[in-house]
Amino acid sequence: MATSFTSRKACSDQRHRMSFAQFLSILLARKRLFFAVMLGVLIPAVVLSFVLPKKYTAVASIVVDVKPDPLSAIAYQSLMTPGVIATQIDILQSDRVGRRVVRALKLTESPEARQQFQDEKNGAGDIEGWLVDRLQKDLDVKPGRESSVINVSFKHADPRQAAGLANAFVQAYLETAVELRTDPAKQYSRFFDVRAKEARETLEKAQNKLSAFQNEHGLIMTDERLDVENQRLNELTSQLVMTQSLSAEANSRQAQANAGSGDKLQEISSHPVVAALRADLSRSEARLQEISSRLGDKNPQVVELQANIAELRQRLDAEVKRLTAGVGVSSNISRAREAQLRADVEAQRNKVLQLKQARDEGAVIMRDIENAQRNYDNIVQRQSVTSIESQATSSNAALLTSASPPLDPSFPKIPLNIVLGLFVGGLLAVGVVTAAELRDRRVRESADIEELLGLPLLGVLPGPATSKRSVALEGAHRQRLLGNPAPSKAA
């Protein structure tokens, strides 16, 4: 049936009512339009898939391995962060790595590259930067999923060139990573070389200053000499105390002797000569008393005895004076000894104080030497570490797999393009068919009449039979409609 309805209300209702069977009947009725649209999309997709130049993608992989530093044995836990992988990807895509690839492959010497640069830029600018920009357009760097692996892929019309450029980018990245690690170490190494030289000169100056100080003061920076001088000071002090005691005693005896009581001093009274003279004097006085009482004072024996007693007294006085003079000499000697010891103690005390002061000054120089030595050792240690780091030949990144020439092109993908062409073309064809049907709504089945009029269908008039199949279909429809009339909605 090809009857057209012009009623706007009926058309509006029909636009909002469409069953799956009606949809299939619409597609069947407009199959030419459907296939025309779908083929209009599919054929260009297939043609382009065969016409477009093929490109091959070679993939190499890098692993960013986090291990303890063999120099300091410290694990860099901070490397296990997404930011590190992102940083490595940025380094791979950097201009520095690209220029290293261009220089390694000597692309600037290619006549074809120079001609293309001349055609595009008219020779203006940097051909190396231009080549880097072109290479980076075909470079694709992606991180592995939840891993520290980075995949480096490169597209090129030649599979060998694609593999070579992918491996060149990986190698340039590894060399750049080593440079990024060793360049700061080399700068630090040069810095510590200068600092080590300055620290060594400071240490030598401090040592020379200590040597000159020791030679000037005749001092060795140990505690032994100071201990000896302290011991000597203690001994002199003890001798002074003893001498002061003896001097005080001698002064007392001298004062007693000067007062006329020298004969009462113990050392004088106990002297053998004085004791003998006193014994003789006592015996003579006793005899004189005996004889004078018996013979009288005028007796020659008495006179002679008196003369002997007078002589004994003179001798005793003379001996006492002599011994008393000896007490004065001993006192003078004690005072002189005391004065000498005082001077010696004072000199020794000054010497000890000078030694102590010199040792304190030397201790300051020694501390300067120790600080200079410690500073020099630390700088030399850091210099050694940075020197080793500056000679490192590896970084925390390593090659996992090298790129090999791919066998199949990655672009265009003909099966995928055909499937996508069929899918997109089918969707577009369905849309076009649906839009065409909505603009010109027609009755495709008997159900359309029942829904449109709300009346049961009593029969179907056969159209001109063009084939046995169409006649059979119309007979089947007629029997179905006559045998199963739809109930009236009005009833």
UniProtKB/TrEMBL annotation:
Protein's name according to its UniProt entry: Chain length determinant protein EpsF
Main localization, broad class: membrane
Listed transmembrane segments: 33-52, 414-436
Every Polysaccharide chain length determinant N-terminal domain range: 19-104
Keyword Transmembrane included in the entry's annotation: yes
A Pfam entry, by short name: Wzz
Coiled-coil portions: 274-375
Stretches assigned to the Tyrosine-protein kinase G-rich domain: 365-434
Gene responsible for this protein: epsF
Organism: Pelomonas nitida
Keywords recorded for this protein, A-Z: Cell membrane, Coiled coil, Membrane, Transmembrane, Transmembrane helix
Compartments it resides in: Cell membrane
